[in-house]
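Summarise this fold before class:
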Amino acid sequence: MKYFLDKYFEKTNGFYPFFKYCPRIYWDYYICKRASNILGYKYNWKEPKTFNEKLRWLIFNEKLELKTKLADKILVKGYISSKIGCNHSAELYGIYNNFEEIDFSILPEKIAIKANHGWRMNIISKNKNFIYKNYRNINKITKNWLNINYEEFSVEPQYRNINRKLFAEYLRSDKENHLRNELQIYCFHGTPLLCELKKYINNNIGYQLYDTNWKLQNFTHSNIFFAAEEMRPEKLDEILEYSKILSQDFSFVRIDFAYNQNDVHVVEMTFTPCSAIIPFDDIKTDIYLGEMLSLPKKDAKNV
């Protein structure tokens, strides 16, 4: 079997649907192989030194049950409200077992239809005519979403036990002028240390990394579009305070925010950015960030 798995890995480079058909006893071997190919060094999360290796160690050894709850894009809303108050996540209109359950007659014109258990599972609708015209296609797409076990994409067990649902929420993103800003706050041991500005410009996404004093850093992900340096956001102090509160229970979490002049809301809490395979432009960055992250004792409840 290993011979055929190696051939299949070469074909897919370990990406979906490789792990869907790979026996779990081989998952660790192949996720390390995939990471090694992408990052350019021998990836060993069981003896972690780099930031990426430590992120994967934390997947298996710290508060997996709580991380599963917060990886659920529906349940995380309640957690956010309990920690920093209401109105800091997009308003939830309804939760559904399938697309056909949704009664669009009682929903507003502008909505986002999403799945709660993965990444890039969302449909943005500025008016109901779009939904009605594309009903069959959207129904098919959402059925495919609900059949996906997202753990099989990236070997991230926090997605394994999520009860898969669709949900409709208030559409906050500004797609009219194709310009929107998000801040992704990297929190180490309950302290916000890095701010990653994510900027949408037409069909491109640009990034810049700053420290919490808004000093531009000289490293970021590789192979991405770089945004121009930006002024310090007026809402930064508020965002950092929320980040500190939300990150207290974890060795590492990235809190993702969307904001404008009047509003700050949490988009999601991310425990394994890029599935713990972040392609930094230099391995020195991976090591540097890894030195900022101390690992706790193993959590006996994790599986």
User: Anything to note?
Assistant: The longest strand covers residues 191-201.
